[in-house]
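Attaching the record inline, Q. Sequence:
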Amino acid sequence: MKYLRYIKTTFKITASMLAFGAIVGCSGFLDESDPSNFTVENYFTKPEHARSSVSAIYANLRNPMGSGFGGGTWMMLEFATGLAATDLGQAVNSYYVKDLRNTSDNGYGLDYWSTYYRGIGNANLSIANIPNINMDENEKKMILGEAHCLRAFFYFNLVQMFGEIPLVTEAVDLKSEQLYPEQAKVEQVYDLIVSDLKIAEASGLPWNDQSGKINMGIVKSLMAKVYLTMAGFPLNKGAAYYDLSAKASQEVINSGQYQLFPSYNDLHDPKKKNGSENIFSIQYKTQVIPSNWQVAIIPYNKNISAYSDETGGIYATKDFVESYDSNDLRRKEKQFFFTKFTHEADRSREVELGAYFIYKHFDYDAQTSTTNSDLNWSIIRYADVLLLYAEAMNEVAGPSANVYEAVNAIRKRAELAPLAGLSKDQLREAIWKERWHELCYENITWFDMVRLRKAFNVSTKKFENYVGHKFSYGPVVTERELLFPKPTAEIRNNSKLIQNKGY
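Structure, as predicted:
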């Protein structure tokens, strides 16, 4: 796909603030006047430069997914839920988060911070320079819509993880006033996120795009998530924002562009990785940029994979899997989880794995034959949108036929009885439970916990306050776990940053 190719148009200014690098060198090493050298002045001159500069923004989605014997940045958001386990002893960053002993030196947090600010820096470059390119105005508007949406996504994740953060909206160089920015209030960050999404909404993007580029379905789905988050903690904007979320998610539903897969097996089908249920995904392509999280979800040294290192980096806790209804299809073998698999040297021999490993992200073909994964990582599925709508609309008007229809579509696929006859409060918790069980291990649950200030007790199968919640294996959540710590390197590089409470 075209945007899998990207240009390196940024250079490091501090540990996080990255801006366009005129590719210049020391005297005698590089002739700065050579017109073949890319600079800000000579690069943004052609329509294809607009496309390639925005392609560079997408590339920053992938970095946190890298996995290996040191763990993987994406796991941070899963271990913080208390619902994930690991056998990877050397991945100390995982244990710091999992055991609620996290510090500002954790490499996962630094990777999220630096990667997403790099994406923001690339977006700022595109937003600043594409308007000056002589090209088709409609195409220009749509490409800028992509850049604004991606910037909104990066800021949305950063503000949820770290709270008050620097708000950088310009292409930064060594003379820029935003080189060492002050951190902005949370609401100011959300104001920019909403503004960016509204620009993307008005950009004329199509509702769907089989290449995986930003489209109207992604924009509206992200708006629904942002508004629902703003309705809850920490902003507590309440009813008006639940209404905005319900309307945005309903537009996605009413567009007719998306639907639930009939089978969970479709989650493993590369031919279905864009569109249908997968609204927004991080793009991978076999033999070019293969999926790189497979190593994390394979049990440690069980000899089942013909492809990946077997790290046992992350798997589901037994208590969480057993919190599903016994009839829930998602709990069954090789639906969302797997406990056995065939031996790599003899596929007629079955190996007991000893735990509930995550099958929903498993690439069967890569592990058994092709040795090169072609799966995407889904950021927003249509299942998420249905549940966003159900939650928001229930808050706006209470139980209704439309709310039940949305949540029961999820339950029907899981072969569970439809919900009916519930009070508003009962339905609220039933929808939350579906979010926990349907969207687990997709980097969503911790965000839900923080915006709701609620956690799911896997023993009682009830929701309780997030602060004070005890993980099934012992640690107790404190107020500091409402945010992750700002990375030490960033605090040292920018004296205007203030560390989050408790770190």
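Confidence is low (pLDDT under 50) at residues 1-32. The CA atoms of residues 209 and 322 lie 38 Å apart.

More tomorrow.
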